[in-house]
């Protein structure tokens, strides 16, 4: 459980760095994209989506040790998978400049 708290603290630190525009190089795909492709993306929206995904992972990390029922954990994993899928879809639609 201590590992979960340490990992959650580290992820919170990363989320704060990314959200406040200091960690754009940490966002997968954005740091290796050409300047032309970066101009097609609204980086503020990508930061928001990335931070949201990290915060969901933090909540999952902090809640999971306290749940004793495996069925509830399975539902939580399913919700997390659906949420990440939605975030990926939004990153490829909503976060693109028109």
Structure description:
The model has no long low-confidence stretch (mean pLDDT 89). This protein has helices at 2-19, 35-38, 43-63, 70-92. The chain is flat, with a radius of gyration of 15 Å. Helix 1 (2-19) packs antiparallel against helix 3 and helix 3 packs antiparallel against helix 4 (70-92). It is built from four helices and no strands. With 98 residues, the protein is mostly helical. The longest helix is centred in the last third of the chain and has 23 residues, at 70-92.
Quick structural summary:
The chain is mostly helical and 98 residues long. Helix 1 runs antiparallel to helix 3 and helix 3 packs antiparallel against helix 4.
Give the arrangement of secondary structure elements:
Layout: H1 2-19, H2 35-38, H3 43-63, H4 70-92
Helix pairs in contact: 1-3, 3-4
Number of helices: 4
Point out poorly predicted stretches: none
Question: Order of SSEs, N→C?
Answer: HHHH
Q: Count every beta strand, where a strand is a DSSP E run of 2 or more residues.
A: 0
Major pleated sheet: none
What separation lies between the terminal Cα atoms? 45 Å
Regarding quaternary structure, how should these chains be classified? single chain
What structural class do the secondary elements suggest? Answer: mainly alpha
Beta percentage is under 5%
Overall 3D geometry? Answer: flat
């Amino acid at each position: 459980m201590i590992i979960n708290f340490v990992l959650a603290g580290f992820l919170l630190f990363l989320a704060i760095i990314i959200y406040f525009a200091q960690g754009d190089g940490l966002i997968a795909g954005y740091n290796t994209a050409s300047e032309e492709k970066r101009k097609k993306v609204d980086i503020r929206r990508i930061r928001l989506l990335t931070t949201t995904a990290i915060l969901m992972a933090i909540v999952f990390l902090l809640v999971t040790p306290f749940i004793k029922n495996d069925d509830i954990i399975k539902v939580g994993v399913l919700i997390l998978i659906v949420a990440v899928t939605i975030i990926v879809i939004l990153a490829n639609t909503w976060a693109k400049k028109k």
